[in-house]
Amino acid sequence: MVFLILVSALAVVAFTFVMGASSLQAQHAANQAQTDRADFLREAANALALWYAAHQATLDAAVAPPNPEEVLQGAGITPRYGLAISVSNRVTQDEVAFRVFALWLPAASPDPSRFDPSSGAFVPGPGVPFTVVSGADIQARAVADTRHTMSRLAAQLENYFAARTLASGGDVSANHFRPSNGCAREEGAMPCLDAYTAATTVDWLEAGVGAVQAIDAWGGTLELSNLADASTEIPPYSMAIRARTPWGAVLHAQAVQRF
Fold first, then answer.
1. Cis preceding-peptide flag for 236 (omega within 30 of 0)
2. pTM of the model
3. Strands, DSSP E only, in 105-192?
4. φ and ψ at 109, to 5 degrees?
């Protein structure tokens, strides 16, 4: 009798152990699956952000959003776990226009998750893992970098003006942003740029300015004019610099005569 009781007790213990081990294995498997999905979304978001940065000049130039399948292919993302993706229209924030991408793994069918293409706002369904990639910071950095390039070019032109003024005896009434003999070609003098002109078409070495860096963050060239948007009649004289963003906005800077 005692033996049977002992055997029964051992059986109960063994059963409890097996069930506990199975439960732990199931919990571990569930945790691992959750980790795998989170890792997949994180890696996909990183790949998408890198792809966006590499194509920022064209992605936000078009009005219509890119096709989601083309986005996945371009970013090198192989869909897993039923991956869903949506792409916003161009969203404008301050002086920047950008796109928002939502990536998520639907947990039910039909999927209650919602994406607003006009704002890029994403509302996930209950228990839905997701990530959002925004181009706001990418394009904001591009604008800042372009403004920095414009400022450096303006400073270089201002130094050129100051050197020409000193060489001419310090006459501050002369506008060295334009040639002194009308628009005739003159070595060591700035050419006439009556309309905005791509910086890459100007021989800055011949003008005496030296080599210039005039490529914006999107790979375009800065444009300059020493007539349009410039002060040409009375000191302080100025020269206009501008850049065009992919979404059509124009950034402006001025090189201004220093006394």
1. yes
2. 0.85
3. 114-116, 121-123, 130-134
4. -130, 120
Residue 16 binned pLDDT confidence (cut-offs 50, 70, 90): low
Burial group, residue 79, by CB count within 10 angstroms (0-12, 13-18, 19+) = middle
192-198 contacts: CB < 8 A, separation 24 or more? 192/226, 192/227, 193/224, 193/225, 193/226, 193/227, 194/225, 194/226, 194/227, 194/228, 195/225, 195/227, 195/228, 196/223, 196/224, 196/225, 196/228, 196/240, 196/242, 197/223, 197/224, 197/225, 198/222, 198/223
The answer to whether residues 199 and 223 touch, using CB atoms and an 8 Å cutoff, is: yes
Instruction: Convert the pLDDT of each residue in 186-197 to its tens digit.
Output: 888 999 999 999
Instruction: State in Å, rounded, how far the first CA of the chain is from the last one.
Output: 112
Tell me: pLDDT of 253 over 90: yes
Q: Measured between alpha carbons, how far is 133 from 40 in angstroms, rounded to an integer?
A: 14
Q: Using CA atoms, how far apart are residues 13 and 28, in angstroms rounded to an integer?
A: 22
Measured distance CA(192)–CA(173) in Å, rounded: 18
